[in-house]
Design brief:
Layout: E1 4-5, E2 18-19, H1 32-35, H2 37-42, H3 45-48, H4 53-67
């Protein structure tokens, strides 16, 4: 499995947080899927729980404007 969900209900921003794995090889930390986990976990609940891809993109653009 590529991603694992955090099994705690005490998440602050969104309830679909991803868990970063522990790996022996240092090269794995450079994979895109591992680098984007911390950014995904920082997204707001409205972005993550979007009902469609179009709505997700609109919310993501709005969230990224406020992050930068």
């Amino acid at each position: 499995m590529i991603f694992s969900l955090v099994s705690s209900d005490r998440t602050q921003r969104n309830n679909l947080k991803l868990l970063q794995g522990q790996f022996r090889l240092g090269i794995r930390k450079n994979f895109f899927t591992e680098r984007m986990i911390k950014h995904w976990n920082k997204l707001l609940r409205e972005v993550v729980m979007a009902p469609s891809l179009l709505v997700f993109k609109k919310h993501l653009d709005n969230a990224l404007k406020h992050m930068v």
